[in-house]
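# step 3/5: fold
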Amino acid sequence: MIYPRKLKKEILRELPNDLTIVITGMRRVGKTFLLQDLFDSLETKNKILLDLEKPENRQLFSEESYDAVIRNFELLGLSLVDKIPGKTIKSNQRAWIFLDEIQYFKKTPSVIKYLSDHYWVKFIVTGSSSFYLKNLFSESLSGRKIVFNLIPLDFGEFLIFKGKKNLPVAHSFKDLTKLNTKMVYALYQALFTEYLEAGGFPQAVLTDSPQRRKTFLYEILHSYLTIDVRTLSDLKGVEELEKLIYLLPSRIGQKLDVSKISAEVGISRQTVNNYLSFLEDTFIIDRITPFSKSPDREISSVPKLYFIDVGLGAVLSGISEGQRLENVASFHLSRHYGLNYYQRKSGAEIDFILDKKIGAEIKTFASDSDYRRLCRLAQDINIKEYYLFSQNLGKERNQNILPVLLLGFLE
Protein backbone atom coordinates (compact mmCIF):
# COMPACT_ATOMS: atom_id res chain seq x y z
CA MET A 1 0.00 0.00 0.00
CA ILE A 2 1.24 3.51 -0.84
CA TYR A 3 0.48 6.14 1.80
CA PRO A 4 0.28 9.80 0.70
CA ARG A 5 3.10 12.14 1.76
CA LYS A 6 2.67 15.85 2.42
CA LEU A 7 5.47 16.64 -0.03
CA LYS A 8 3.35 15.26 -2.88
CA LYS A 9 1.13 18.38 -2.92
CA GLU A 10 4.16 20.64 -3.33
CA ILE A 11 5.57 18.53 -6.15
CA LEU A 12 2.24 18.38 -8.01
CA ARG A 13 2.24 22.18 -8.19
CA GLU A 14 5.53 22.03 -10.13
CA LEU A 15 4.46 19.46 -12.72
CA PRO A 16 3.26 21.96 -15.38
CA ASN A 17 6.63 23.73 -15.74
CA ASP A 18 9.72 22.49 -17.62
CA LEU A 19 12.04 22.15 -14.63
CA THR A 20 13.43 18.73 -13.74
CA ILE A 21 12.04 17.67 -10.37
CA VAL A 22 14.65 16.14 -8.05
CA ILE A 23 13.53 14.31 -4.90
CA THR A 24 16.32 13.65 -2.46
CA GLY A 25 16.65 12.40 1.11
CA MET A 26 18.01 9.58 3.25
CA ARG A 27 17.78 5.93 2.35
CA ARG A 28 14.52 4.17 3.26
CA VAL A 29 12.68 7.43 3.83
CA GLY A 30 10.10 6.65 1.12
CA LYS A 31 11.43 8.28 -2.07
CA THR A 32 10.66 5.26 -4.26
CA PHE A 33 7.08 5.03 -2.98
CA LEU A 34 6.55 8.75 -3.49
CA LEU A 35 7.90 8.47 -7.04
CA GLN A 36 5.53 5.55 -7.73
CA ASP A 37 2.62 7.54 -6.26
CA LEU A 38 3.40 10.50 -8.54
CA PHE A 39 3.75 8.16 -11.52
CA ASP A 40 0.37 6.56 -10.80
CA SER A 41 -1.23 10.00 -10.40
CA LEU A 42 -0.52 11.01 -14.01
CA GLU A 43 -3.42 10.24 -16.35
CA THR A 44 -1.33 9.58 -19.43
CA LYS A 45 0.12 6.54 -21.14
CA ASN A 46 3.18 8.44 -22.38
CA LYS A 47 5.22 7.82 -19.24
CA ILE A 48 7.87 5.44 -17.98
CA LEU A 49 9.43 4.65 -14.60
CA LEU A 50 12.93 3.16 -14.33
CA ASP A 51 15.01 2.08 -11.32
CA LEU A 52 18.65 2.93 -12.05
CA GLU A 53 19.85 0.64 -9.29
CA LYS A 54 19.17 -2.14 -11.82
CA PRO A 55 22.08 -2.58 -14.28
CA GLU A 56 19.76 -3.28 -17.22
CA ASN A 57 18.12 0.12 -16.79
CA ARG A 58 21.46 1.89 -16.58
CA GLN A 59 22.32 0.39 -19.97
CA LEU A 60 19.56 2.51 -21.49
CA PHE A 61 21.62 5.64 -20.68
CA SER A 62 25.08 4.24 -21.42
CA GLU A 63 24.80 4.52 -25.22
CA GLU A 64 27.47 6.53 -27.03
CA SER A 65 24.96 8.88 -28.67
CA TYR A 66 21.81 10.66 -27.54
CA ASP A 67 20.02 9.32 -30.63
CA ALA A 68 20.60 5.79 -29.38
CA VAL A 69 19.22 6.72 -25.97
CA ILE A 70 16.13 8.18 -27.65
CA ARG A 71 15.63 4.98 -29.69
CA ASN A 72 15.83 2.97 -26.47
CA PHE A 73 13.07 5.04 -24.94
CA GLU A 74 10.94 4.67 -28.07
CA LEU A 75 11.43 0.89 -27.96
CA LEU A 76 10.03 1.00 -24.43
CA GLY A 77 6.89 2.70 -25.77
CA LEU A 78 7.68 6.36 -25.03
CA SER A 79 6.83 8.99 -27.63
CA LEU A 80 9.17 11.99 -27.75
CA VAL A 81 8.05 15.15 -29.56
CA ASP A 82 10.64 17.65 -30.82
CA LYS A 83 10.68 21.13 -29.32
CA ILE A 84 10.16 23.67 -32.10
CA PRO A 85 10.67 27.37 -31.27
CA GLY A 86 7.35 29.19 -30.99
CA LYS A 87 5.30 26.00 -31.12
CA THR A 88 3.55 24.31 -28.21
CA ILE A 89 1.95 20.90 -27.86
CA LYS A 90 -1.12 19.44 -26.23
CA SER A 91 -0.63 18.35 -22.63
CA ASN A 92 -1.19 14.68 -23.45
CA GLN A 93 1.71 14.74 -25.94
CA ARG A 94 4.34 15.45 -23.33
CA ALA A 95 6.54 12.53 -22.29
CA TRP A 96 7.15 11.82 -18.61
CA ILE A 97 10.30 10.03 -17.44
CA PHE A 98 10.56 8.94 -13.80
CA LEU A 99 14.01 7.79 -12.67
CA ASP A 100 14.73 6.23 -9.28
CA GLU A 101 18.21 6.25 -7.64
CA ILE A 102 19.99 8.43 -10.20
CA GLN A 103 23.20 8.51 -8.15
CA TYR A 104 24.00 5.06 -9.55
CA PHE A 105 24.73 6.50 -12.99
CA LYS A 106 26.69 9.74 -13.11
CA LYS A 107 26.00 10.45 -16.79
CA THR A 108 22.25 10.76 -16.16
CA PRO A 109 22.23 14.60 -15.80
CA SER A 110 23.73 15.14 -19.25
CA VAL A 111 21.03 12.95 -20.83
CA ILE A 112 18.33 14.80 -18.86
CA LYS A 113 19.69 18.15 -20.03
CA TYR A 114 19.83 17.13 -23.70
CA LEU A 115 16.38 15.59 -23.81
CA SER A 116 14.81 18.47 -21.85
CA ASP A 117 16.36 21.00 -24.23
CA HIS A 118 15.27 19.26 -27.44
CA TYR A 119 12.07 17.37 -26.60
CA TRP A 120 8.80 17.93 -24.75
CA VAL A 121 9.72 15.73 -21.82
CA LYS A 122 9.49 16.17 -18.06
CA PHE A 123 11.87 14.34 -15.70
CA ILE A 124 11.04 13.45 -12.10
CA VAL A 125 14.01 11.75 -10.43
CA THR A 126 15.15 10.58 -6.99
CA GLY A 127 18.56 10.33 -5.37
CA SER A 128 19.72 9.25 -1.94
CA SER A 129 21.23 12.47 -0.60
CA SER A 130 21.82 16.12 -1.35
CA PHE A 131 25.58 15.64 -1.00
CA TYR A 132 25.81 13.49 -4.12
CA LEU A 133 23.12 15.37 -6.00
CA LYS A 134 25.05 18.62 -5.56
CA ASN A 135 28.04 16.97 -7.19
CA LEU A 136 25.97 15.44 -9.97
CA PHE A 137 23.75 18.40 -10.76
CA SER A 138 25.77 21.46 -9.76
CA GLU A 139 26.67 22.53 -13.32
CA SER A 140 24.87 20.37 -15.87
CA LEU A 141 21.38 21.30 -14.66
CA SER A 142 22.06 24.67 -13.10
CA GLY A 143 18.83 26.68 -13.21
CA ARG A 144 16.97 23.77 -14.82
CA LYS A 145 15.87 21.83 -11.73
CA ILE A 146 13.90 22.18 -8.54
CA VAL A 147 14.97 20.07 -5.54
CA PHE A 148 12.61 18.65 -2.92
CA ASN A 149 13.94 17.07 0.27
CA LEU A 150 11.86 14.12 1.49
CA ILE A 151 12.32 13.74 5.22
CA PRO A 152 11.03 11.15 7.71
CA LEU A 153 7.34 11.21 8.58
CA ASP A 154 6.12 14.02 10.76
CA PHE A 155 3.51 13.15 13.38
CA GLY A 156 0.62 13.98 11.04
CA GLU A 157 1.97 11.58 8.40
CA PHE A 158 2.65 9.00 11.13
CA LEU A 159 -1.06 9.09 12.00
CA ILE A 160 -1.98 8.51 8.34
CA PHE A 161 0.33 5.45 8.31
CA LYS A 162 -1.53 4.28 11.40
CA GLY A 163 -4.84 4.48 9.54
CA LYS A 164 -6.14 7.74 10.99
CA LYS A 165 -8.29 9.95 8.75
CA ASN A 166 -9.86 13.43 8.82
CA LEU A 167 -6.93 14.84 10.79
CA PRO A 168 -6.92 18.44 12.02
CA VAL A 169 -4.98 20.99 9.95
CA ALA A 170 -3.30 24.17 11.17
CA HIS A 171 -1.55 26.90 9.21
CA SER A 172 -0.24 28.93 12.14
CA PHE A 173 0.30 28.80 15.88
CA LYS A 174 -2.95 30.71 16.27
CA ASP A 175 -4.66 27.76 14.58
CA LEU A 176 -2.89 25.38 16.97
CA THR A 177 -4.39 27.14 19.98
CA LYS A 178 -7.84 26.26 18.63
CA LEU A 179 -6.84 22.57 18.59
CA ASN A 180 -5.68 22.67 22.20
CA THR A 181 -8.58 20.67 23.61
CA LYS A 182 -8.85 17.68 25.93
CA MET A 183 -10.49 15.66 23.15
CA VAL A 184 -7.67 16.21 20.65
CA TYR A 185 -5.12 15.35 23.33
CA ALA A 186 -6.97 12.18 24.31
CA LEU A 187 -7.29 11.07 20.66
CA TYR A 188 -3.62 11.32 19.77
CA GLN A 189 -1.42 11.30 22.89
CA ALA A 190 -0.87 7.52 23.03
CA LEU A 191 0.17 7.48 19.36
CA PHE A 192 2.45 10.47 19.93
CA THR A 193 4.23 8.50 22.66
CA GLU A 194 4.75 5.72 20.11
CA TYR A 195 6.01 8.25 17.57
CA LEU A 196 8.61 9.47 20.07
CA GLU A 197 9.94 5.91 20.21
CA ALA A 198 9.61 4.91 16.56
CA GLY A 199 10.62 8.08 14.72
CA GLY A 200 9.55 8.65 11.14
CA PHE A 201 11.07 6.03 8.84
CA PRO A 202 8.04 4.40 7.19
CA GLN A 203 9.19 0.81 7.71
CA ALA A 204 9.92 1.47 11.39
CA VAL A 205 6.47 3.00 11.78
CA LEU A 206 4.70 0.08 10.13
CA THR A 207 6.19 -2.57 12.42
CA ASP A 208 4.68 -3.25 15.86
CA SER A 209 7.78 -5.07 17.11
CA PRO A 210 10.25 -2.85 19.03
CA GLN A 211 13.05 -5.34 18.29
CA ARG A 212 12.38 -5.41 14.53
CA ARG A 213 12.16 -1.62 14.58
CA LYS A 214 15.52 -1.42 16.31
CA THR A 215 17.05 -3.86 13.81
CA PHE A 216 15.67 -1.85 10.91
CA LEU A 217 17.14 1.41 12.22
CA TYR A 218 20.55 -0.21 12.61
CA GLU A 219 20.22 -1.48 9.03
CA ILE A 220 19.62 2.09 7.85
CA LEU A 221 22.86 3.22 9.50
CA HIS A 222 24.72 0.21 8.09
CA SER A 223 23.55 0.86 4.52
CA TYR A 224 24.36 4.56 4.92
CA LEU A 225 27.94 3.76 5.95
CA THR A 226 28.56 0.90 3.52
CA ILE A 227 26.82 2.29 0.43
CA ASP A 228 26.40 6.05 0.67
CA VAL A 229 29.69 6.75 2.41
CA ARG A 230 32.02 3.96 1.25
CA THR A 231 30.74 3.50 -2.29
CA LEU A 232 29.23 6.77 -3.43
CA SER A 233 31.41 9.36 -1.69
CA ASP A 234 35.13 10.08 -1.59
CA LEU A 235 35.06 10.55 2.17
CA LYS A 236 37.98 9.03 4.05
CA GLY A 237 37.87 7.62 7.58
CA VAL A 238 34.54 5.79 7.61
CA GLU A 239 35.35 4.16 10.98
CA GLU A 240 35.99 7.59 12.49
CA LEU A 241 32.71 8.87 11.07
CA GLU A 242 30.83 5.90 12.54
CA LYS A 243 32.39 6.52 15.96
CA LEU A 244 31.37 10.16 15.73
CA ILE A 245 27.76 9.24 14.85
CA TYR A 246 27.48 7.11 17.99
CA LEU A 247 28.78 9.96 20.15
CA LEU A 248 26.27 12.52 18.89
CA PRO A 249 22.84 11.38 20.22
CA SER A 250 23.77 12.09 23.85
CA ARG A 251 24.44 15.69 22.75
CA ILE A 252 20.94 16.29 21.33
CA GLY A 253 19.75 19.74 22.36
CA GLN A 254 23.21 20.73 23.58
CA LYS A 255 25.85 23.10 22.28
CA LEU A 256 28.51 21.19 20.36
CA ASP A 257 31.95 21.14 22.01
CA VAL A 258 34.04 20.28 18.95
CA SER A 259 37.29 20.19 20.97
CA LYS A 260 35.88 17.53 23.31
CA ILE A 261 34.48 15.49 20.43
CA SER A 262 37.83 15.77 18.63
CA ALA A 263 39.62 14.32 21.67
CA GLU A 264 37.09 11.48 22.10
CA VAL A 265 37.21 10.38 18.45
CA GLY A 266 40.93 11.03 18.05
CA ILE A 267 40.74 13.31 15.03
CA SER A 268 41.37 17.00 14.41
CA ARG A 269 38.81 19.73 15.05
CA GLN A 270 38.72 20.48 11.32
CA THR A 271 37.97 16.85 10.50
CA VAL A 272 35.17 16.82 13.07
CA ASN A 273 33.67 19.94 11.47
CA ASN A 274 34.00 18.37 8.00
CA TYR A 275 32.23 15.22 9.20
CA LEU A 276 29.46 17.22 10.87
CA SER A 277 28.87 19.11 7.62
CA PHE A 278 28.77 15.80 5.74
CA LEU A 279 26.22 14.36 8.21
CA GLU A 280 24.10 17.48 7.82
CA ASP A 281 24.25 17.37 4.00
CA THR A 282 23.24 13.69 4.02
CA PHE A 283 20.23 14.21 6.34
CA ILE A 284 21.55 12.56 9.51
CA ILE A 285 21.74 15.64 11.74
CA ASP A 286 20.64 19.26 11.87
CA ARG A 287 22.43 22.15 13.58
CA ILE A 288 20.98 25.47 14.69
CA THR A 289 22.91 28.61 15.61
CA PRO A 290 22.26 31.20 18.36
CA PHE A 291 19.76 33.98 17.84
CA SER A 292 21.42 37.24 16.90
CA LYS A 293 20.62 40.34 14.92
CA SER A 294 23.97 39.89 13.16
CA PRO A 295 24.18 37.06 10.56
CA ASP A 296 27.98 36.98 10.88
CA ARG A 297 27.72 36.33 14.60
CA GLU A 298 25.27 33.47 14.01
CA ILE A 299 27.63 31.77 11.57
CA SER A 300 30.59 31.95 13.95
CA SER A 301 28.70 30.95 17.11
CA VAL A 302 28.46 27.49 18.65
CA PRO A 303 25.55 25.46 17.18
CA LYS A 304 23.18 23.06 18.91
CA LEU A 305 22.65 19.55 17.56
CA TYR A 306 19.54 17.57 16.65
CA PHE A 307 18.97 14.37 14.69
CA ILE A 308 16.67 14.50 11.67
CA ASP A 309 14.99 11.31 12.88
CA VAL A 310 14.52 10.90 16.62
CA GLY A 311 14.15 7.12 16.30
CA LEU A 312 17.55 6.78 14.65
CA GLY A 313 19.20 9.03 17.21
CA ALA A 314 17.65 7.21 20.16
CA VAL A 315 18.58 3.72 18.95
CA LEU A 316 22.27 4.69 18.72
CA SER A 317 22.51 5.94 22.29
CA GLY A 318 20.27 6.36 25.29
CA ILE A 319 18.66 9.80 25.36
CA SER A 320 16.38 11.37 27.94
CA GLU A 321 12.66 11.95 27.50
CA GLY A 322 13.33 15.68 27.40
CA GLN A 323 15.91 15.28 24.62
CA ARG A 324 13.52 13.10 22.64
CA LEU A 325 10.75 15.68 22.96
CA GLU A 326 12.98 18.63 22.04
CA ASN A 327 14.34 16.74 19.02
CA VAL A 328 10.83 16.03 17.73
CA ALA A 329 9.90 19.68 18.20
CA SER A 330 13.03 20.78 16.31
CA PHE A 331 12.17 18.43 13.44
CA HIS A 332 8.62 19.72 13.09
CA LEU A 333 9.44 23.40 13.51
CA SER A 334 12.31 23.28 11.00
CA ARG A 335 9.83 22.20 8.30
CA HIS A 336 8.14 25.60 8.49
CA TYR A 337 10.57 28.08 10.04
CA GLY A 338 14.20 29.08 10.17
CA LEU A 339 15.47 28.06 13.63
CA ASN A 340 17.84 29.63 16.12
CA TYR A 341 18.22 29.25 19.88
CA TYR A 342 18.71 31.93 22.51
CA GLN A 343 20.90 31.51 25.59
CA ARG A 344 22.24 33.95 28.14
CA LYS A 345 25.59 33.62 29.92
CA SER A 346 23.58 32.71 33.04
CA GLY A 347 22.21 29.67 31.21
CA ALA A 348 18.65 30.97 30.85
CA GLU A 349 17.43 30.10 27.37
CA ILE A 350 14.65 29.83 24.84
CA ASP A 351 14.91 26.55 22.94
CA PHE A 352 13.87 27.94 19.56
CA ILE A 353 13.48 31.34 17.93
CA LEU A 354 11.44 30.95 14.74
CA ASP A 355 12.18 33.26 11.82
CA LYS A 356 13.66 35.67 14.40
CA LYS A 357 10.20 36.63 15.65
CA ILE A 358 8.49 33.74 17.51
CA GLY A 359 9.76 32.04 20.67
CA ALA A 360 9.13 28.35 21.43
CA GLU A 361 10.18 26.59 24.63
CA ILE A 362 9.88 22.80 25.11
CA LYS A 363 9.18 21.17 28.48
CA THR A 364 8.28 17.62 29.45
CA PHE A 365 5.94 19.04 32.10
CA ALA A 366 4.95 22.68 31.57
CA SER A 367 3.77 25.00 34.30
CA ASP A 368 2.48 28.54 34.42
CA SER A 369 5.74 29.63 36.07
CA ASP A 370 7.63 28.20 33.07
CA TYR A 371 5.45 30.33 30.83
CA ARG A 372 6.08 33.48 32.85
CA ARG A 373 9.83 32.83 32.63
CA LEU A 374 9.54 32.42 28.86
CA CYS A 375 7.54 35.64 28.69
CA ARG A 376 10.25 37.63 30.49
CA LEU A 377 13.07 36.26 28.33
CA ALA A 378 11.15 36.81 25.09
CA GLN A 379 10.28 40.39 25.96
CA ASP A 380 13.91 41.13 26.83
CA ILE A 381 14.93 40.35 23.23
CA ASN A 382 11.85 41.95 21.68
CA ILE A 383 10.14 38.66 20.76
CA LYS A 384 6.44 39.45 20.98
CA GLU A 385 4.94 36.02 20.16
CA TYR A 386 5.91 32.96 22.19
CA TYR A 387 4.59 29.53 23.09
CA LEU A 388 5.39 26.85 25.61
CA PHE A 389 5.12 23.28 24.32
CA SER A 390 4.72 20.31 26.63
CA GLN A 391 4.55 16.53 26.49
CA ASN A 392 1.42 16.66 28.63
CA LEU A 393 -1.75 18.72 28.54
CA GLY A 394 -1.08 20.33 31.92
CA LYS A 395 -3.42 21.78 34.48
CA GLU A 396 -3.14 25.36 33.28
CA ARG A 397 -5.41 26.28 30.40
CA ASN A 398 -3.20 29.06 29.07
CA GLN A 399 -3.86 29.17 25.32
CA ASN A 400 -0.12 29.61 24.69
CA ILE A 401 0.81 26.40 26.53
CA LEU A 402 0.34 23.67 23.93
CA PRO A 403 0.99 19.92 23.62
CA VAL A 404 3.98 19.19 21.36
CA LEU A 405 1.88 16.67 19.38
CA LEU A 406 -0.08 19.57 17.83
CA LEU A 407 3.01 20.48 15.78
CA GLY A 408 2.26 17.45 13.61
CA PHE A 409 -0.82 19.22 12.26
CA LEU A 410 1.03 22.28 10.95
CA GLU A 411 1.01 22.64 7.17
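# step 4/5: annotate
The chain has two domains: 7-149, 155-409.
# step 5/5: archive (pending)
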